[in-house]
Amino acid sequence: MTARDRLVVAVIVAVGILVAGYLTIVSPERGKASRLGRQLSSAQASITTAQNSLQAAQAAQTAYPSNYSTLVRLGKAVPPQDQVASLIYQLDQAAGSKHVFFASLANDTTATAASTSSAAPSFTALPFTFTFTFDGNYFQLYKFLRAIDGWTTAKSNGGLVVDGRLLTVQGVTLAPSAGSLAATITATAYTLPSGDLLPGDSASTDAPTTLTSTSTSSPSTAATPATVAP
Amino acid sequence: MKAVNLIPSDQRRGAGGVTGRSDGIAYVILGLLTGVVVLAAMWGIADHDVGNRQGAIAGAKAKAVQLQAQASALAPYTSFQTASHSRQQTVAEIAQARFDWAHTMHEVGRVLPSDVDLTSFNGTGGPAPGSAATSAPSGSTTAPTLTLAGCTTSQAVVAETMTRLRLMDGVSDVSIGTTSAARPIASGNPASAGSTACPHSVSFSLTVTYDAAGVPVAASTGGAK
């Protein structure tokens, strides 16, 4: 073996040693470091997620009084129980203020329960259909309808003004009645299902303890014609 | 006379070439050692990174768990807020989906000619109970209809009434049910058109159909105070 051959063999052996060392020792360690780098990124992402969750939770905690207040106000519109007594009280008050004689109220037991939209699956309302019969003139009944619609109104910015029960009027029938005008209003009220109660709901059971008579006022205008003549 | 170099050949300057007397093996060993040092440095850096990152990962996981625990402790507030917003949204949807019968009565009062008397006002329809306009399936909102019966002085006024009823918000159709004029039997007794309450000789019934998609919304017409 000549000197040149020995040199070539030595170079090959040296390069082989270095490559083997890199592949068996250095490269796995670098791979491990790279893997850990990815795990670290993932862990930092989970920190960010957790921080966001915590911030949202802290914001919810800060907003709890406001949310509680909102829930209590919504309880006036959609109470946890049917609270027919409260509904009668509100109708009577509204009828009295509009000089409309509130004659009768009947629960329509033929109505089937329905659920609200799927947009808010946690909220399910059970409608109650009532028939109201009122005496009054055309414009008094118009004002009365306006009043009960105004108990709960949605603002254009998505907000709500809640001043009473949420009612959906499904039908209005006006007819002459003994020198006055009788209106039969078919409406639906809503209640919360028992499984959907929150802490604030208990505060919204503000049914009045005493009810006034359902005949708060006499037919307001003796000159009301038998026909509807707007 | 020929000069003779008495220095042994292996000790002369430049003897063995660039490889020296070891025939280059020394350079190879030197290169190998350098390579080993470089590899050792690379391994050391990688090992240092591994150690650092393992520590950082452990710390990050611990911090994430801590933050999650804090967030979980406040989860009731979050779910309460979600439920509150959800309920508010549903109530708002129902309130907005209502048909504004008060506005309808107001408009009927505005558009009817002065010499028309109504004997019946019957409105039905609108959104089904519990359905919200934005998410209710099609068909759950029926087109509201308003059936009016009354009397007036002439057939021309009935036609004018139909035309004016069409001017109301959201009305898609006004159709005639009946219109009948009775010949007065005697003067001073105009109520002979089938309705004993009506003071005019021409009685009619009309059906006003509203556009289901464009029903008036209670909120759009202002408050009720």
How would you summarize this macromolecular structure in one to three sentences?
The complex is a heterodimer of chains A (230) and B (225). Chain A has 230 residues and is of the alpha+beta class. Chain A has helices at 3-62, 64-77, 84-97, 138-149; strands at residues 101-108, 128-135, 152-154, 160-162, 167-177, 180-189.
Kindly state the number of beta strands of chain A: 6
The greatest inter-chain interface is formed by:
A-B, 102 and 94 residues
The whole-angstrom Rg of chain A is 37 Å
One letter per element, helices H and strands E, the order of chain B comes to HHHEEHEE
Low-confidence stretches of chain B: 132-139, 188-195, 218-225
The quaternary structure here is heterodimer
Strand elements of chain B, count: 4
| Unreliable runs of chain A | 112-123, 204-230
- Specify the number of helices of chain B: 4
Helix proportion range of chain B: 40-55%
Ends apart, CA distance between termini of chain A: 126 Å
Estimate the strand proportion of chain B.
15-25%
> Strand order across the biggest sheet of chain B?
1-2-4-3
Please state the CA-atom Rg of chain B, rounded to the nearest Å. Answer: 49 Å
Query: For the residues shown, what is the average pLDDT of chain B?
Result: 80
Strand order of the largest sheet of chain A: 1-2-6-5
What percentage of the residues of chain A does DSSP assign to strands (E)? 15-25%
The level of helicity of chain A is 40-55%
Main sheet of chain A, how many strands, which sense, barrel? 4 strands, antiparallel
Q: What is the tally of helical segments of chain A?
A: 4
